[in-house]
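Subject: Interface between my chains keeps coming out wrong

I've been trying for a while to get a sensible model of this assembly. When I model each chain on its own everything looks fine, but I need the whole thing in one frame so I can look at the contacts. Pasting all components below, labels as-is. Any help appreciated, I'm running out of ideas.
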Amino acid sequence: MLAYDFKWSILWQDPYGGWILDGIATTIKLGVLCCFFSLLIGVIIGTFRITHYKPLRVFAEAYTEIFRDIPLLVQLFFWYFAIPTLFPENIRVWVYQEIPNFEFWVVVVGLSLYSSSRMAEQIRAGINSISADQFNAALSTGFSHYQAYRYVILPLAVRLVIPPLTTEILTVFKNTALAMTVGVLETTFMSQQVEAYTFHGLEATTAACVIYMIITLVVVGTMGWIEKILAVPGLITRKGARL
Amino acid sequence: MIEIVNVSKWYGDIKVLDNVNETIKKGQVVVICGPSGSGKSTLLKTLNGLEPFQEGDIQVDGISFSDPKTDFMKLRQKMGMVFQRFELYPHMKVIENITIAPVKVLKQDKSRANKKAMALLERVGIPEQADKYPGNLSGGQQQRVAIARALAMEPDIMLFDEPTSALDPEMIKEVLDVMVDLAKSGMTMAVVTHEMGFAKEVADEIIFMDEGRIIERGTDKSFFENPKSERAKDFLRKILI
Amino acid sequence: MNFEWQVITHNFTFLMGGLVTTFELALIAIAGGLALGILVGMARLSNIKAIYYPATLFVNLMRTQPLILVIFWFYFFMPLVLGRPIGDFMSASIAFIIFEASYFAEIMRAGIQSISKGQVEAAYSTGFTYWQTMRYFIIPQALRNMLPSLITQGVVVFQDTSLAYVIGLREFLRSANVVDAREMRSVELYLFVGLVYFMVCFSMSRVCKRMELKKGNA
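Reply #2:
Try treating it as a single job with all components included. I did that and got this:
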């Protein structure tokens, strides 16, 4: 093994420790924002995919397929490098100069759209797993379509969809790491920044690994807590349950 | 009370209901039987508007389905339905399953709805299950709750779609007893079932369907003892042993 | 808004060179990932604690990490282990094989577990041994069941190779990026990259869908 002196203390030395903490804050901000937007858009696209109205359904299917078959990094590059060149000169100048953290918001747009197609897929699968007769039963007691969705279908769908949604939320947080390629100062970027200044790449990168592990534990723990609150005795929502 | 006139229905190219005609009078119990895929469940679901149809007309208490002004929501308030897989709402307690429709649709106040729900649970024999969740009940208990849920809206007509087919044998009797009791109290019922014992006891008319058509109909005696069509004979032989 | 698509035709060989690297990396990652994945998958099914726990730890650890970070980690780690600097393609290959193996392992574990116990019991009761049962009944059925998931994961690996960008590997995306820096024709170039990826991944997903349909009818 090559002689290498491990120097873990760089991680909490000034200014490196501060950089890493800033990076964590950015990762969390990015993750939370993208989860919020992608869930919002995902619910809309998910409903489009099961609607009877063909144009909306086809649009939603095309939407899902496009975002799924192109790598996220390519999509981010497209938003960051390509789209601004389409703006006329003065708008482009304004965008680069007047919007603080332009690259941050580009990633929010790109990652939210990408993740929304994945969220939509899980939501669609969740709603589809509810038997048609459950809806019929609600209608047969005199509920309107709206009431059937509000009191029966949606409360059920939310509970069914939480486990797969947990995985998708984790994926969003992991994907925030790609933001480093366009200059967003998040965790991975900062770990490499520390490496550039100290040449202790292994320690810095390992620190970032530990940070993502902790983020995972927090997300899984939070979603598990939500699942517990909503749980109903006798209702199995993990894979394999028939409803 | 229910008039079915020349009703036909297609799923794509497949004709699932073929020129069905039938009259169900008030207080009558009609049993619909036949092999799988004969269209029995589909016919039942057309009666409360859950399944649309392309040809013909259905009239319930004079209200015609082909009238564009027909409010199906209001119609379904007067028709109760019980499903093969019970379809209780799993995220609500038993008592909430029963009271939610009267409270949200009929705007009854909660305490009155609760009282009526408890009375219905007594009637079907399981008042002690009121605060449990459907996941903790046996199949037979769930189906009886489903019947109570349908009765909570005080319907004039009750529709049953193979209510005992998903039950373990020892629980079938408890559900059939509730249905017999309901029939004897004068409820108008349309029941899709293979339970010929039930049919013999309370049915006023038995309809045998195959491939979307009504092949034969009769009062219980004439059907069981002397079925006229080959298909009916064959079917009875297979299920009655 | 005038597009100059010649930027693609003029640099076509260069871009295709990048695409070849992408395919090479993907193939190595898939082959290596499958090989390592089978071992880890079976380890996850083992009753021996010394085999089960490390495998489970490995799989769960990989699931918490962004691939981009794993690529960096091996980029720093491999020279230490080997005692000498290592090329970007080699370092990326190792990172990919190890990372993707954890995902392949889970697919295979699920595939083997999905064969119902009834099948195993039926085989035993007709007199087959453990290895015969595995060879003639379990593994063929499991493979047929997991093939769509394996192909889907293969598509994911193919897309993931774009991440090797960060250590400078001259794969397809990086090649387009290099041309963009020179010619400033971002829209045309990245649309082209997106289109190529889309065509490959979309056709593979159609293959999967057809397989699933056939499986449903079997």
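Reply #3:
Confirming on my end. Residues 176 and 203 of chain A are 21 Å apart (CA to CA).
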